[in-house]
Design brief:
mainly alpha; 7 helices; globular
Length: 159
């Protein structure tokens, strides 16, 4: 992320991950990814209420741990970009756009469930997904969101 530096004692990465979608699948792998897109993974947001009506996009489902949508997106986002499938990318972007546009000024990302003690795990999953999309695509909005969350979490998470 631009302008963000780690502690001075960290050793620089020797290898950097490939941006999502930068390696184009062929042959058997392409067939498997297309099968996945045409099956459960590609259709989950159209029939499973916990994703279709997720609390991450203003719905009323997946309200306890808030982790079903982040786990689904964690596989769906790379699938969409690996296949360069505009329909899948648009579906993923719908979720990402909603989540980013509803982040609090303080940095809280996702459903606010203070009454249940705030569940942090799903927020970490979502940060990983935002990293997959925001950093490789140089999305200032995504990078800003990650930075706000990163600065907020250490002050709020009980250790």
């Amino acid at each position: 992320m631009s302008g963000v530096k780690g502690p001075p004692n960290l050793i620089p990465l020797k290898y950097r991950p490939f941006p999502v979608g930068s390696v184009q699948p062929t042959g058997w792998l392409l067939d498997q990814l297309q099968t996945q897109a045409n099956s459960l993974s590609g259709h989950l947001p159209f029939f499973w209420n916990d994703v279709m009506n997720s609390s991450w996009i203003g719905g009323q489902s997946d309200t306890y741990l808030h982790e079903r949508t982040p786990y689904w997106l964690n596989g769906f986002v790379p699938l969409a970009y690996q296949l360069q499938n505009k329909t899948l990318i648009a579906t993923a972007q719908k979720y990402i756009d909603y989540i980013l546009s509803h982040q609090t000024a303080e940095g809280w990302l996702g459903p606010d469930d203070v009454h249940d003690g705030n569940q942090y795990w799903s927020k970490y999953l979502m940060m990983f997904i935002m990293r997959q999309v925001a950093i490789p695509r140089h999305s200032e909005r995504g990078q800003t969101s990650l930075q706000r969350t990163k600065c907020w979490v250490p002050n709020k998470v009980p250790l």
